[in-house]
Amino acid sequence: MRRYKVAIIEPSMIIAEGLCKILLSSAEADVVGIYPTLRDFAERRAVKDVEVVIVGSQAVRAGESVRGSVAELSGATIVLLATTVVDEEVLRQADGVINIYDNEATLLRKLRAAVEQGETNPYSDSHDLSERERDVLILVAKGMANKEIADRLNISIHTVMSHRKNITHKTGIKSVAGLTVYALLNNLLDQNDVTL
Predict the structure, then answer these.
(1) Which of 28, 58, 133, 163 would you call most buried, defined as having the most Cβ atoms within 10 angstroms of its Cβ?
(2) Cβ(173)–Cβ(182) below 8 Å
């Protein structure tokens, strides 16, 4: 049986250590690290060593993109550990969800299902934007409406909306302001191109 390299991001050490103990007692997971926040994880981990990231719901702030916070996570399976009521936007970022009240067998079953979901998910091979999605993102960040983007790129408005949906799914970012920041941080856009 394959053993997954798992990182746990959970601010509660009691929860994180308990989860770690359950995972280590199984033949399915090696825990490569426990981190209290996404920022700590981004700063202190070796991405190549992580296949599955379990993120506690308390570690994700409202409006925060898990994959966007750690760009190198595009190939990793993201599993949300629901310790509280979870915002639907955060749930959509995960390949799977485990609950704090799940027993060991249920937790491991859900973990396997999340990994399988991640392997069959069309977005899992690459959360990188396609060339056309980058074009649409740049024009969105420049403040253009869907119709203007369609006219500029010679595509239908429905295609623009489809690209925007894919961009939102891949980045986990819905707002134009958030997408603009994403474009700036990923050098898709120069700061001088953005109208304030």
Answers:
(1) 163
(2) yes
